[in-house]
Every structure is written in C-alpha cells, then in structure tokens.
C-alpha cells in the first residue's frame, strides 16, 4: 500500500503543481487560500476531476474580476485518491497546514462523512456540491447539491402522472451503499403514502462495479408484466453502462419501461454509446442543454478553460449538475465573505444565509437562512442521442430543501429546519 | 435525410388536404385539447385514421404540431395552419404551444403508427406493427383488429392480431366471446397475460366469483397453468444462458492468465491491464474505422481481433524481456514487480487517453436480441462473445497441442533443465509463451469492451475473477479453467436468481474458499512428477 500511496502522492503533487502552476513561495498575506478536495485518481476520478476543473476555472474568473476584497484567491489542490480515510487526512492537511479559508470538495456520501469530524474539530468550512440522501445538517457544511425532496420525490411524482406514463409499479435498483439505501427508504415510504402496495415495489441492490445485469434486467421484464412499471435507478458510477446496454439489448425501450436515474448526468454519458439510452430519464437541478444567457456563458467559459488548460479530450467536455453546484457555491462563498468583510468561518457562515446567485440553471438560487441548503429548481430530462438531455418537465420555481425527509420515521420534530 | 424530409413534406402537402375529410372531428378536438390524457387518447385514435392519421403523426414527430386557442394546428415555415381545415390562421408561430414529445407521447405515436402500418405495410412491417399493438391493445383498437382480420392472410400476423383482440375481448359482456378469448390466450407465453386472466379465477370481496360462467373459469384456470409452465421454462433456459454467458466472459478474462500463471507459473498482477490494453486497441481500431472506413464501421470488431492480440502481446513481450525474465522462480518478487507494472500501465492509459471511460459502440450485428422460444430473448452480443470464447479456446488448444512451439512450451514448463539439454531455446520459448498469454488477454479485453466499461482501471475489476477461475480450475490446466469458468457462471446466476447479486457474490467467494481448503490443487490436478 505504501509504495502505491507514495507513488500516487508524488504523481498527484506534480500533476497539481503542473495544472495550476502554483507560484512556489507565493506571498501568503496577499492571497486567500482555497482548498479543493476532489479525487483525481482511483474510481471516483471519472466524476470528480471535472469538479476540480470547474473550481479552478471559477477561481480564475473571480481573480480576473479583482479577487475577493481585493485579494487574489490561491487554490490548493489535493488528491484524496478515492480513498475515504485519506479524505480526512487531506482535509486536516488543508485546514491545519495550508490554513485554507474554505474547502470545496467531496462527492460520495462516505467521503463527506469521513471529513465531517475534521471540519467540526478545526472549525473549517466545506461546500459539498453533489445531490445526496439528506439526514444531515452540519454547521460547518453548506450543501449546494439537491436534497431528496429536490430530486427523487419530484421525479417519482412525474412518473406517476399521466404525462410521465402513469406508472403503477416501481423497481428500485441501486448500488449497495448509504445513498441508494436511504433514498429508497424515503421513496418506499413516499410511494406507500401515495397508495402503492408493497407487492408493487421491488428493491434490488448490486455491489459496486457490478457489470452483469442479465438477471436483473430479466427480473425487471418479469416485474413489468404485472402492470405499468418504472425503474428508479440509484446505480452509481461505471455500472450504469452495462445496465443500460443490457436493457437495450433485451428490448426494453424507454417507452415500455422508463428508467429514471439520479446519478447519471452529462459527464457519465460521455463514456457511453447513448443509442440504448435514448428516452430514459434523469432528474437534476441543471442540464447542460438549458438555454439561457447564464448557461451559454457558463458552458462557453468552461470549454475555453478546458482547451486553454490542456484537459484531455477538451473538444468534448461537458458541464453537469454538480459542476454547476460547485460554481454556484464558490460564488456564493465570495459574496458571503464580502458581506462579512472577513474570511473568518463563523462570520462567513452567518453571512451565507439569504445569499442569492443568478445560476446557470436560469433561476436565481437562494441559500436558505437556516438549513444550509440551496433552494433549487427540479428538472427532468430525457436522454438524447448526443448524450444531452431534453427537459420534459420542470418546477416553476426553486424548491426549499428538506434535509430531514418527512418520510423517515423520527424526523417529525425536525421539519422546521 | 433531405430527401426523407422532402418526401414527408410532400406527403403532408398532399395529405393535409385529404386529411380534413377523413379525420374524426372528435379526434381533432382531442388533439387540440389542453388536457394531456385526452391528447394521448386522440393520438392513439389516429391508428384508425389511415393516411390522414399518418400525416398528423409525421407532423407531431417533426415537432410542427401544436395547439392554439384550443385548436389543433400545424406550424410550418412560420405559418400557422388549422389541422382540420388547412386554413392559415392569423397567429404568430411563437404563440402556438408546440407539443413537446416525451415517452408517453412517443408510446402513443408508436401505437398510432403501428395501427396505420398494420393496414398498409409490407409483411414484415405488419408483423412488427401487430407485435407493438399487442402490448397496447385497448377497446379503441378493437374495430381495427376486426378490420385487419377480415383480409389479413399471413398466418403469423393473424395469430398476433388474434391474441391482441383476445386481450380486449376479455372484457366483453358476451360469455361466448370471453370463452373464446380466454382459450386463445392459453397459447400465449407472455407473462403479462397472467394478471389479465387472474380475475377470471378469483372471487370478489363478497366471496362471489368475478366470472359468472364456470366454463370460462375452467378454461382460464387451464390457460394460466399453460402460460405459467411456458414462462417458467423460458426463465430456467434464460438463467442457464446467462450463466453460460457470464462463464464465457470469465473464461475470456482468465484464459490469458491460465497460460502465464497456470502453465508458466508467473504470478502476473498486471494481467488485468493486459485486458485493458486489448480493449484500448479495440478503441483505437474503432476510431480508425470511424475516420477512414465509415462504410465498414460494423466490422471494426473483426479487424480489432489481430490488433488487440498484437498490442497486448507486444506489451507482454516487453514486460517479459525487461522485468519478468529476471524473476523466474521468485514468485514474491514477480508479484510485486507485476503489480508495479500494472500501476504504470494504468497511469499511462490515464495520461494518454484521459481518465474518462471510452465509448465503444456495439456493431449493429451485435445489437438487439433473437427470440429463440417465446419469452426467451438472447442478446446478440452475448451469443457472439460465447462463440468467440470457444474460438479462442480452440486456438489456444491447437497452439499448445499441435504446434512445435506448443510442444516446446509444454516441455519447458514441465522440466526446464531437461528441455534445455535437448536443445530447446528456453529463454525464447518463455518470451513467446508469455507473449501468447498476454495476447490472449488482449482478446479477452476486446470481448469485454463489447459488454462492460473501458477505462484505465478496468483491469482491476477482473484480476480477482481471473485468479479465482485459474486457481479453482487447477493450476497448469486449460480444461480446468473452462470447467471452472462455466461452472462459476451458471452457479452464480442461479444464486443471483435466488438471493440477489450481493448474496450471490458472497456465496461464490465462500464456496471457493471452502473448495480450495478441501482440494488445494483445484478441480483438475496435473499428475506425476511435473506437479510440484
């Protein structure tokens, strides 16, 4: 293990230095240090590398516009290598050694959980940009991704509606870890509250990296014979490709059995032959295909940045929901620092509530004054042949997050948050 | 494409005129309604409207169809036209609420198109249309089925339409028609029919039979039994096939290792990365075909066979010459060294091709599935890979058993000093044997690229499975690997059907541990002094 760690460390270090060109021996007094904690190697690199890129781009953009309170931002990039305990180690390094004012990072819930103790111990500030299962509210964390009521529940309501096909039976399929299990627990309770019987809900989990979906697709087919069925997929990472491929080859089209996914976005579809996916659904708070001036500018900026910084396959880079959330998070942090007049963590936390930002989703997003979550619009998109999404349904205005789902027992007392 | 559009346009131009007279006013009203469900019903009703319906369907698909002030309109070239009268309406195109297609509407359109094709298409089109309608058979389509049955002559199509009509007639108030429908449905193998027949053999809340006629009840009972038997058989057959398919993938992933580890005794931790090299070679070939030979794109997989083999063999040869040959007989060191090599290869791929997974398309002849018996559809890509596994296996067997090189390889691995004594160039044989093993791994990578993800770390996912197959099969044996791969595949699939994917994975590993405890030499063991 040691050899590998050192090797990766050395590589990540050289890569990060090369990537951002940190001027060695920068003058600490004139800059504000900002930590970026995303895996650049290992299984999560596929998703998290883009978040590091968009964070660096946003920091450049802010610096070009004069920085924060007249000071330039200095990014400190570390690579926790998709290794959950290493996340905590790197977070400690960022806070204690590099003395960063804020950290933007994490993707999987398990990585977030592993850094939480470090942030509360050292009173750091973390911006978490990914949709997650809720059931958490930390003073030191701002959640710029969606809570379950901003993604999963509206998606299921859509599937139930006439427009969404009026599904009567639900096949909940996920990877076996905390996010899918909690989400499905919430969804099961929600479906029951809508009068769906237990026999019409099937819950199936696969190990991480599962690639043989023959049996599961055959089961979906059999389950669908019992009535109008929709599949709700919380499959994470690589496994999505073999799943959709098997679905396509087995002749289950989106018009027969639609699959709505909560972890499949533009970035994930880049490595995929999208033919078998066309028509399947995804629920997010942002899609690259949205047409509004903010988004056009955002996409163009990221394309240009990728090209200028030699990102591999820069011609085909895409933007996605967690990237938008990262972008919004950094800007909101900047606004809060300027309002507070200091980068002191407690002062910034106090100033964050009520911040607004004109986001690439086309909506003005507000940071909730009490619950550290953004009010976000919910969009449901259908996969197009080019790997982009056509929005088929959306909320008319941003929805307030419910981090403590009312569909989980014991959360009744926390509904005001 | 332009000619297609032009044709659609011309068709529309001539048909909008005739459409007026033929379209049912109720349907036109429904199409313009703001209520989504009414629109869906109206679109489905286009199935009966013949060519006039086809024109509307084409307009909807082209995104030209919308509603304006409660009227169904077509927007074309900036002008807004009323659907039923064809008159131009004085309205801005921007004010029309264009109908946005989603899955539900696409399904309704598919029904409408199938209904139209069922009366006018070629034999194949009519059969496909009939199958589409089978899933969506509704009361509204019954007149269409009756019309078709009057003059349809192809038996296969008649059968499907009769089935579709029977599904609708289950709700008929006439007991004789219900009896006929229930009898007909007994010939089905579609599990979706079972819930339709259930009410015929159940009692309602007051304990009364829902179906009053005992004769219908009896036949329904028999029909359900017959369908369940067919479904159960198809299900067992499908499990066996998916087990064989999983086995063939395990075998392809493990065959290269069966040579390098099994026959030569090198613990090669970089085996997974050799699979990756094969898959990346396939990707490069795909790129070349896309750029230079787009007409032959479907055959890039075939051209990738030698490419994947040679690329992986070259990498393997390089590994053997530069590192491994100094480490023969020192398993611990070679384990560490090959692991290091695997990291180097992963990082090289990441730097050259980027960390993203690569897109590899299934050629069209490997997409879709073939229905062997009703209810048992086998995907083509899995069938092809199963065949490919057999092909590679035969190739290796022939090389090892029937060629001079194979003879040398066997001689060297059994007794190196003796082979050297009789003039076998052992060092060169080692290199070639390792290169062949690596090349076979490359072929495995090619096959995996058609099923699973291709990315820098893809090999990591297969290394455990590969060792599992080789160790279970018995080191030094190709036949052992074959039995182990197919056995594990089928067992894993039956376990998965019983307890789910997570449990199946755990049980398989537990089983292997127990088996190796009991029989450390694996399924098949070499006998005699060679086995040390």
Verbal overview:
The complex is a heterodimer of chains A (417) and B (532). With 417 residues, chain A is α/β, with parallel strands linked by helices. Chain A folds into two domains: 2-146 and 293-366, 3-Layer(aba) Sandwich (Rossmann fold), CATH 3.40.50.2300; 149-289 and 379-414, Response regulator (Rossmann fold), CATH 3.40.50.2300. Chain A is built from twelve helices and 14 strands. In chain A, helix 2 (45-64) runs parallel beside helix 11, helix 3 packs parallel to helix 4 and helix 11 crosses helix 12 (345-352). Chain A is globular. Residues 13-28 of chain A have low confidence and may be disordered. With 532 residues, chain B is mainly α. Chain B has three domains: 2-105, no CATH class; 121-212, no CATH class; 256-482, no CATH class. In chain B, 68% of the residues lie in helices and 5% in strands. Chain B contains 21 helices and seven strands. A five-stranded antiparallel β-sheet of chain B has the order 4-3-2-1-5. In chain B, helix 7 (142-151) packs antiparallel against helix 8, helix 12 runs antiparallel to helix 13 and helix 20 (478-499) packs across helix 21 (501-518). The longest helix of chain B is centred in the middle third of the chain and has 50 residues, at 214-263. Chain B is elongated, with a radius of gyration of 31 Å. Residues 8-21 and 528-532 of chain B have low confidence and may be disordered. At the A-B interface, helix 1, helix 2, strand 7, helix 7 and helix 8 of A face helix 3, helix 5, helix 11, helix 14 and helix 15 of B.
The CATH class label of the largest domain in chain A is Alpha Beta
Quaternary class? heterodimer
- The level of helicity of chain B is 55-70%
Largest interface: A-B, 59 and 59 residues
Tally of helical runs of chain A: 12
Helix fraction of chain A by DSSP (H/I, runs of at least 4) = 25-40%
CATH topological fold name of the largest domain in chain A: Rossmann fold
Strand content of chain B: 5-15%
Order of helices and strands of chain A: HEHEHEHEEHEHEHEHEHEHHHEEEE
Largest sheet of chain A: 7 strands, mixed
Shape of chain A: globular
Strand content bin of chain A = 15-25%
Number of strands of chain A: 14
Structural class of chain B: mainly alpha
Terminal residue distance of chain B: 68 Å
Average pLDDT level of chain A: 89
Lateral arrangement of strands in the main beta sheet of chain B: 4-3-2-1-5
What order do the SSEs of chain B take from the amino end to the carboxyl end, as H and E? HHHHEEEEEHHHHHHHHHHEEHHHHHHH
What is the count of structural domains of chain B?
Answer: 3
